[in-house]
Amino acid sequence: MKLGELIKGADQEGKEKHVPVIDLAVATEDRDQKAVRITVGKEVEHPNTLEHHIKWVMLYGVKAGALVHVATFDLGPTYGVPTVVTMANIDDFSELIAVEYCNIHGLWEGSLAL
Ligand SMILES: [Fe+2]
Fold first, then answer.
1. pTM for the structure as a whole
2. Average pLDDT, integer, range 73-81
3. Where are the alpha helices (DSSP H) in the chain?
4. Which of 95, 96, 47 has its CA nearest to residue 75?
5. Distance CA 65, CA 17 (A)
6. What is the CA radius of gyration of the chain?
7. How much is the mean pLDDT over the chain?
8. What is the pLDDT of residues 37-52, one digit of tens each?
9. What is the arithmetic mean of pLDDT over 65-78?
């Protein structure tokens, strides 16, 4: 089995709590960077307990047809709320892809075409 076969998406049960939603929260005026926000549980809040939580979120971009890493967020259970923001220069990107890991429900992905 390949890892990609285990990643769930917007067409699967549990998507409301797990699919990471990407949006561009703020555009800065004096730099080429934009604020990229990733929210897990935007439709329905995901539990954040020791027993059931989002452990990490990763953000990738597609640049000139290649996948590039943008940021990784390692969240502690109960304190690290699974909404994260990073600044990034994404002008040359065609897409953003976020992947998150729920300790019970596995890997989930969401994307934003730019
Ligand atoms: Fe979960």
1. 0.92
2. 93
3. 15-18
4. 47
5. 30
6. 14
7. 93
8. 999 999 999 999 999 9
9. 96
Q: Is the model's pLDDT at 57 over the cut of 90?
A: yes
27-53: burial string, b at 16+ Cβ within 10 Å, e else: eeeeeeebebbbbbbbeeebebeeeeb
Residues in the chain, overall count:
114
Q: Nearest 5°: CA angle at 11, between 9 and 12? A: 75
Neighbouring residues of 40: CB distance < 8 A, sequence distance ≥ 6: 17, 18, 19, 20, 21, 46, 54, 57, 82, 83, 100, 108
Rounded CA-CA distance 36/66 in Å is 19
3-class state of residue 78 by DSSP? coil
CA of 48 to the centre of ligand 1 (A): 9
Q: Which residues neighbour ligand 1 (ion) by CB within 5 Å?
A: 102, 104-105
Considering only residues 61 and 35, tell me which one the structure prediction assigns the higher pLDDT. 61
Gap from CA of 46 to ligand 1 centroid (Å): 6
Q: Give first-to-last CA distance, the chain, whole Å.
A: 31
Tell me, in angstroms, the distance from the centre of ligand 1 to residue 54's CA: 7
